[in-house]
Prior knowledge:
The complex is a heterodimer of chains A (758) and B (154). Chain A folds into 3 domains: 2-209, Aldehyde oxidase/xanthine dehydrogenase, molybdopterin binding domain (Aldehyde Oxidoreductase, domain 4); 220-267 and 274-307 and 385-460, Aldehyde Oxidoreductase, domain 4 (2-Layer Sandwich), CATH 3.30.365.10; 475-757, Aldehyde Oxidoreductase, domain 4 (2-Layer Sandwich). Helix content of chain A is 31%, strand content 24%. Chain A is built from 20 helices and 29 strands. In chain A, a hairpin with a 2-residue loop joins β17 and β18 (395-400). Chain A is globular. The model of chain A is unreliable at 9-42 (pLDDT under 50). Chain B is 35% helix and 16% strand. The radius of gyration of chain B is 15 Å and the shape is globular. Classes of the chains: A alpha+beta (758), B alpha+beta (154).
Amino acid sequence: MTKIKTGIGRRSFIKSVSVAGGGLIIGFNWMACKGPAEEGSEELAMQMPDEWFELNGYLKIGDNGIVTIYSPNPEIGQNVKTSMPMIVAEELDVDWNNVVVEQAPLNTEVFTRQLAGGSQSIRQGWESLRTAGATARQMLLIAAAKQWEVPVSELSVENGVITHKGSDKTIGYGEIAKAAAQVEVPEEVELKDNDNFKIIGTSRKNVDAKKIVTGQPLYGLDTYKDGMLIAMIVQPPAFGMEFKTMDDEKVKEMPGIKDVFTIDTYPEDMEKEWSDVAAFSKLVVVVGETTWQVMQAKKALNVEWDLNPELTKEIEILEKSAGMDDASGLESTDIHATLMADVGSKQSEVVRKDGDPEKAFKNAARVIERSYTCPFLAHNCMEPMNFFADVSGGKAELLGPIQTPEYAEKSINKRLGLELEDIDVQMTRMGGGFGRRLYGHFLVEAAVISEKMGKPIKLVYSREDDMTNGVYRPAYHVTYRAALDANNKLTAFHVNAGGIPESPLFANRFPAGAIDNYLAESWTLNSNISVGAFRAPRSNFIAGAEQSFLDELAEEMGQDPIQFRLDMLDRAKKDPVGEENDYDAARYAGVLKLARDKSGWDKGNSSLSRGVSAYYCHNSYVAQILDMSIEGNEPLIDKVTCAVDCGIVVNPDAAKNMVEGGTIDGIGHALYSEMTFKDGKPQQSNFDTYKLIRHKQAPKKIDVHFVDNGIDPTGLGEPPFPPVQGALANALYKATGKRFYRQPFINELQTIDTELKT
Amino acid sequence: MATFNITINGKEKTIEADPSTPLLWILRDHLKLVGTKYGCGISQCGACTVHFNGSAVRSCQLPISSAANNEITTIEGLSENGDHPVQQAWLEIDVPQCGYCQAGQIMSASALLKRNPSPSDKEIENAMDGNICRCGTYTRIKAAIKKASNSEIA
């Protein structure tokens, strides 16, 4: 048993949930874990306690033994709304069937990190969630011991029932909760040994599933309140442009339209949070009664836009420096490609250097050099950006999909000058996140619009607004070089990576540490296109590129691609080069071996083309082996075998779901998706032109295997996404005889097809 | 503005709206039936799928003027207690991640099984190809459809 300082003290036990939560804790979701109970029915009367007792900010216990557990973090589909409460319930020792889950309010005094990002919810919540459950359990035990006048050490708990060994007396949590709520918070509590877990490591259904499959309101866009108006934005058509003037007279007369005006979401003098990233600060806003009316008004609105020289000037200089005569400062994908290939690497900075790579390359018998690129990507959450705001009387109520509620609250504080305690940001279930909703500009826009209207409004982005007002995944470019000596031995490795406007380089990740002579360089190029985190930032490109290069290298060296990696990892484990390496070579090798065994790698399969890849990011290790064929001109993916080391798996079936989804997502984006630009204008604005993977293109089968090592949990939302892109590229090579260097691969795949036909 | 009569989930409704208003926004803005989702507005993603006289249609492309005097079923009316075989299969397989597209997926799947109770893999893929799932739950959706269909192999 591990003893742990509770460290949460009295301060965390302020009855802040009911204060800050407002309406959120009313209306319990009985459907969450039990069948739907009709209002006034016998079932509900049985379930509904007369009184709740809050033992700490994470949970409260009803006098009938029902336990409400608050899930602290935003839910974007990673299923933390189920898995975080499971961890609390585990240490509380309660029957999961008696648990009701509610989304917690934003409360930074009680909760440690209410943010969905970096695959960190479970990893960073692990200790505090366990401590909260164990502390409440201990308080219930102390209260029971006091009532029976026996030592706590003689008590045991199972499924929310406390038993005294000597007398066989029992008492339920519901019966002792009132007394427990009066108990002093223990300074130290014991956490369970992993062997004693009853809930963690067992599959539990998504607590919102019943609501999802019956179409109940869950998402921000489902918000409808009395007196609420609909607001939509009209934005510049291209990056580098800004509002000039508009003719809105006729539009203001249209049915249902209440007002048309401009806003400046982030005035220049505002102190911004890191999450205050927006494509455009100055927007035209149309407010009306219904969504369709506002959509019609938007179409009818005549707005003139201008070049913004402040934005385009630097880009123009950059383009001119590359010898482009027609430099306009408005960015285009073809210009990006030229800049990345010809200009970027000339501005490189050395980030890491081991040994003497220059000498090794000079003395090499053979140098293999390959370059890889990927395009900008839009997040395309299925639920477009939206937010409800009611700013009036010096207070702001904000409700909707946001991955960073804490920062959003600060942004509103800075933008509207309201006190933090007068700002209530409430989290809804999100129709996807993928990093897009880290950047809460739409929440700030909603608040500014509501303040101006003096009315509650729901800001709604159309799909076109959402896709063209992106905080995109940047475009990246990387060149790898490998030096081989006369014996075909790898003597040096060089990675030169950059992007618009950030570099995807992780200089201290594998294969750093496995090669004596190693050089990692990085560069960036300016852009006016707004970018941000996209599922597994930077890894989401560099993993696939690196793993494709290693595959090609293994082939050039006449080695099995898995054994080649394992040998390098063995070197990194036994005799690592450098001290900054940020991966565990043994765990890395572990997933490769597991994937090899589970896929029957050594046996091979003559009818299918097979590719392998492995990567480490967000504290976890994933290896994937992909089997495919080409039918007609379409890639058909038969099976992906995934081996994952993310430590303890809290909710195995849901974790499998996450790995399956990440795998499909990775394949889809590498194969099909791209956001291109022409004169600053996004060239894709809806799903007719922006390709996302669909049913037919998904793998027929995905096998998921977890490494069982008892290590505290690490990330899972992101790690399965990056490596599969490499496995796909390597399998495509086997299927077509051609290496794929440019994402999305479908473009080159279609070229091959054309070449074959002609 | 005009007045329309429409049967939604077996109940007669009278709606005042511009005739061009898509059924999607009638359901959401006027009737507060929010289970039918907005995803793209151009019938490319399937999030807004409902049953129109029993067939799956994209409600974002169906103006109220055409929907009137017809029978519409939305996710809220697919079953009385959320126990349609497709909904049950979805729960058993624990399909959803973010869940936003799932109502549309379920409406497409239930319409498919109604006309073809034993679809092959290919038939499932064809029928479901217009429904995007950004989280990538495609393999689970297919497993759930097979579970709900007669073609399930035990």
